[in-house]
Automatic annotation (TrEMBL):
Cofactor needs: Mg(2+)
Biological-process GO terms, alphabetical: canonical glycolysis; fructose 1,6-bisphosphate metabolic process; fructose 6-phosphate metabolic process
Keyword list, A-Z: Cytoplasm, Glycolysis, Kinase, Magnesium, Metal-binding, Transferase
Pathway: Carbohydrate degradation; glycolysis; D-glyceraldehyde 3-phosphate and glycerone phosphate from D-glucose: step 3/4
Protein name: ATP-dependent 6-phosphofructokinase
GO CC aspect terms: 6-phosphofructokinase complex
Enzyme type, top EC level: transferase
Protein family membership: Belongs to the phosphofructokinase type A (PFKA) family.
A GO molecular-function annotation: identical protein binding
Membrane spanning residue stretches: none
The Phosphofructokinase domain, residue ranges: 1-134
Alphabetical list of InterPro entries matching this protein: ATP_PFK (IPR022953), Phosphofructokinase_CS (IPR015912), Phosphofructokinase_dom (IPR000023), PKF_sf (IPR035966)
Gene that this polypeptide is encoded by: pfkA_1
Length: 179
């Protein structure tokens, strides 16, 4: 089973979802994947008596050069690359190479509609109160953020200055659980 989640440039959602659910592999944009490596993991699971394999795939995950070719989808109206379903294309490759049926689920925006936890609700309330306080104080162009356990305000320009990518060490920690 391949589960495709949001993650155009950064694999935080995929990485954390994979860890939280015990997925057997996670593919993220920051780490080009080799299809043969994925197939080896699938084969290994089945050779050890497992009846399933779950891989979380960020929509922006890309195969390593020469591993497999992805269809190109052109650009959307905002000039962003239009994705063509990396999980579905990977599923075809795995089926060909491993001779097992592969199912694909694309969560897309469904993943945004989950029920918030108590922590999520409290944090959102704290963010809302702080954002309202900032607006009342005339502090525009700011974003509320969580630093440790404290709510802080950060200039929007600072918040979007660079992508917050998954560092290699964090991926390596998660990869210790693959297989």
């Amino acid at each position: 089973m391949l589960v495709e989640v949001m993650g155009r440039h950064a694999g935080w959602i995929a990485l954390n979802a994979g860890l939280a659910t015990g997925a057997h592999a996670t593919l993220i944009p920051e780490q080009p994947f080799d299809v043969e490596d994925v197939c080896r993991l699938v084969k290994k699971r089945f050779q050890h008596g497992s009846s399933h394999f779950i891989c979380v795939v960020a929509e922006g995950a890309k195969p390593a050069p020469g591993s497999m070719e992805l269809r190109q989808g052109g650009l959307d109206e905002f000039g962003h690359e239009r994705f063509t379903g990396v999980a579905a294309q990977l599923a075809v490759e795995i089926e060909k190479r491993v001779k097992k049926d592969v199912r694909v689920t694309v969560l897309g925006h469904v993943q945004r509609g989950g029920t918030p936890t108590a922590y999520d609700r409290v944090l959102a309330t704290r963010f809302g109160v702080n954002a309202a306080d900032a607006a009342h104080a005339g502090e525009y162009g700011m974003m509320v953020s969580l630093r440790g356990q404290e709510i802080d305000r950060v200039p929007l320009a600072d918040a979007v200055r660079q992508l917050k990518l998954v560092p290699q060490s964090r991926y390596d920690d998660a990869a210790a659980f693959f297989g």
